[in-house]
Every structure is written in C-alpha cells, then in structure tokens.
Amino acid sequence: MNDIKAKWIAADWGTTHMRAWAIGEEENVLAFRESNEGMKDLQQNEFEPVLLRLIESWLDDTKVTTVMACGMVGAKQGWVETPYLKTPCVPIDNNQLTTANTHDKRIIVHLVPGVMQNHPADIMRGEETQISGFINKNKGFKGVVCLPGTHAKWVNIQEGQISSFKTFMTGELFGVISNHTLIRHSTSIKGWNQESFEEGIHEGFNNPGLIASNLFSLRAESIVNNMDRDQARSTLSGLLLGVELNGAQSYWKDNNVTLIGSELLSNNYHQGLKVLGGQSQLFSLETATLSGLSSAYTNLVSD
Amino acid sequence: MNDIKAKWIAADWGTTHMRAWAIGEEENVLAFRESNEGMKDLQQNEFEPVLLRLIESWLDDTKVTTVMACGMVGAKQGWVETPYLKTPCVPIDNNQLTTANTHDKRIIVHLVPGVMQNHPADIMRGEETQISGFINKNKGFKGVVCLPGTHAKWVNIQEGQISSFKTFMTGELFGVISNHTLIRHSTSIKGWNQESFEEGIHEGFNNPGLIASNLFSLRAESIVNNMDRDQARSTLSGLLLGVELNGAQSYWKDNNVTLIGSELLSNNYHQGLKVLGGQSQLFSLETATLSGLSSAYTNLVSD
Description:
Strand content of chain A: 15-25%
Order of helices and strands of chain A: EEEHEEEEEEHEEEHHHHHEHEH
CATH class of the largest domain in chain A: Alpha Beta
Strand order of the largest sheet of chain A: 3-2-1-4-7-6
Distance between the termini of chain A: 33 Å
CATH architecture of the largest domain in chain A: 2-Layer Sandwich
Largest interface: A-B, 46 and 47 residues
Largest sheet of chain A: 6 strands, mixed
Number of strands of chain A: 14
Helix content of chain A: 25-40%
Oligomer: homodimer
Number of helices of chain A: 9
Number of domains of chain A: 2
C-alpha cells in the first residue's frame, strides 16, 4: 500500500495481459502495474476482483474513481461485451462506451469499443485506442499506421477517422509454427541473427507462394547442412514478415508508415520495411494507449 | 491367429502410423494390419515388439521371413538410422538398405533409406518407396509426381531417377492453424463446402502474400458476417493449397501431374489443380508402396 491516489485509472486489458496506470491531476502517470491475468483466463465475475487487486491502493475511499479500459476485456468472452464501431469511424466515440456492472462503489469502469469493418470483414479491439492516441498527438494526420502484434493491423487514417484496415495474424503464425510444428526441433527460443532475418524478409517478400516450402526448408537445412538454431528462428521471423510485407504493399509502398507496438516487434517491422526500401518510424505504444484513454476520459467528464 | 504364412512382409512405418502387409508367393497381398504405434511414440527398443505383435501370426517358425520397411522408422529418432541417398538418385538403391538389429530369429528387417537434396536442402522418408513403385509401373516415365500429405512432395523424375524435389508443409500448417490458433473457434472438424474451397484456391493462388490476412478473415467473417464453420474450414483448406499451388507452379504448369497420396487429399489436389487449369490424375498410394517394397525385396533375394 502507498498513498498514491489516482485522479482516474487507465487500463489496457488484453487477451493475455492487463496493464493499469494511476493518472494524476496533471494527466501524469503516478504509478503502473501489470498482471498476466488476461481476458482469456477469466470468467465474467472475476474481472472486478482482478482489477481491484491491482488498483485498490490507488483509490480514494471518499469518492468514485473512473477506470477507462480498452482491449479484449470488451469482447463477447470478456467482462462485458461492447458493440463494435463500424468503419469509417472515429477510433473512439464517447457516446459508445459501455459501463461494466461493478459491486464496489469506489469505481466506475468504462470500456472502449473495438472497431469492425464489414467488407472485407475485419475486427480490432485495443488498437483503436492507440490510433486515437496517435491522432491526438498528430492532429490532421493522413496516412498509414501499422500496429505490429499477434494480429498486426495496417490502418488507413484520414480526417481523424479509421477509413479502412487489414489484419495479418503473422505473430500468431510465428508462435504456432515455432511451438507446434516440426520446426520447433530446429529453432532457438530467443537468439537472433540479423543477416538470416533479412534474407528471410527478401525470400518471403519475393516468393510468398513458397512459404510452406521455405518453412520446411528450415528443418531440412538443420538436418542436411546443420543450420544453426538462431539462424532458423531469425529466418522464420523474416520469412513470415516478408510475406506480410508483400501482402501489405498497398499500405506502405507510397507511405512513410508509423509503427505503434512493442519496441522489439516494431523494430523488426522497421528493419523489414527498410530492407525492402520502405520508410517507417516508431511511435510509443504506451504514449498512444494513454493518450487515447486520456482523451476519452476528458471528453467523458466534460460532457 | 490364422494359417496365413507370408513369403515376405511389407511395412510402411511412418511418424504416426504403421501398416503391414503379408505378401504371398505370387506377390499377392494375403493380409493387412495397421496400428497407430507410429515412430514418434516409440523408443528404439520398442520397434521389434510392436512389429512382432502385428506380424507374428504370419511367420513360419521354420524359416527366416524378410520384412521390408520404409518411412520414418529409418529416421535418427526411429528404430535404426538409415543414411539418406542424395539426389539425383534412383529412389531405392538396394545396396543402401540398413538391417535392424533384431532378437527374434524368425525375422530379418531391412529398412529403405530416405532421399536428401543438398541445395536447396530437402528430405523425404517413405515417399521414395512410392516413387520407386510408381516408376516400376511406368517404365521410362519422365515428368512430375506430387505426393500430398502432411509434408507434400513435388518431384521431378527422369531416367528412373529423382532429379530434384520440393517439400511443402501445407498439411502440417492446416493442422496447427485449425487446432492451435484463434481460427479453431470458427472452423468445423469435418464438414465441407466445395464452393468455399475453390474460392480459397483462387485467392491463395492469386494473393499468396495475403495469406496471414486471409486466415484472420476467417475469424472476422465468422464474427462480422456469421460465416458458417464448414465454409471456414473449406476456405482454409483452399487458401493454403492455393498458396502451395502458386509456389509449385514450375512443377505443374506444363505437366500432367501424377498424384500419389490418400484419396481424400489427392482429390483436393486434383480439384485445386483443375480449378487453376492444371491437369492431374491419381495413382494408388497402396499400389505404389507395395510395388516399391516388392521390387526392393525381389532385387535383394536375386542378388
């Protein structure tokens, strides 16, 4: 316990992790906590206790503290389903927040809806908040934002709106291929080889149709030519990202892309784009998330 | 128990299954048995007992019966490692059989080696026997054979030799994507929709770089537009095969391909090729396997 009291609380509650920030009077971060109690491991009635355990010491018992939450917490299998906005749309519409049914009188929890696209069908939950935060910091932005992750999003933005987007489940493919196919015998868990990564980018980009063969080659190379496990892991990463960059060409060929994601992944995307002649720069994931939730909070209390 | 006595015994011992045939004096099949005691579940000392349990009733106690075995049983993690032949090579070279160290004096077990390619690195174990059997039945064949499976092989054959080949792990990808990614929530276990399969073939073939996005779309379509689970499963199958057929174009564009594999998978490949204007026909997997092992046996005893 400590004596930090939050003006309001920001929460990014995803599938596998939950992050919470205590925000002060000057919209400054007073404290941060995280947990691996992600949406996928929780029953509906467990969300409030999990949240309280993380944030209780930040609450002022004499008032109601607002919690602004985004991410998969708002999915059908989450705490309370928050219906999607539909593209084209502003990333966060304050009239569309959903309020969770809480027992503790010291908190009120608002959930930010995700965004859906009808044709071609696509969905996001969480990234809309980061996009909102990025737009807040770059008024009038027109162009492309990419949010690397388990399900990477390439997003067209204009006039403050998400006009269209496309999801690539490249990160999830990397995970299942590394962990559940014969390639697991040939790849390391962590190591890295930049040259192999870049070769993978070129090959994946130039020959996306050969991906299932190039993946098998990682196993064959390790048996036939003793390919090193770090090389195999880095080539795998490069191959899959190269294929994505082939499919996402219309997003980045004529645009300087802004990458919003973990530093590690964003750096991979930055390198991958650079190798192929594309331009990009990183924007802080935390800044984007907090700015998005902050503007939603500010709009809410000023209404 | 019965009174079938085998002249010799053929065995196809793969990663997940083991199949054995009792062969008679006229090279006819007297009996067949199978088991799911595949290579991956067995320790080295378990192979002989498993084999004996399956074939013991076919043995003549007064003589030594030859067992000809192919497949992953000859891998490093199998019964006894049989070093690979190297392309270009005949699919089965009788001087390169490996003999397992057995305790039971009634059997002698010969293992057929797999085939390896140095550049680009590739490997097969089992398919070489089917290729050998197909060539036995089609003397002088020059052209392309495709062996659909967990790890599909596309093989160039000329002058009785495997000149080169390429493996696509499309089948394994289908398995892990169906079972271990978010798509599992949207696909059926069995059902089929031919139209969706064919749409998937076209899309995978035309836009292989979009595969990670088209896969995510199956989930998004099920949420946004209530896509049916059979449709999703069939589209998934079509998408992955379409990508493979893009990458394997050099094998089938100017060739009438012979497909050797399970009827179900071979039919998918046949349909997929047809949709894209390719030509193919099926050749029996069992005939290929038995003919390959049979010629190896005949060469062995005639030496």
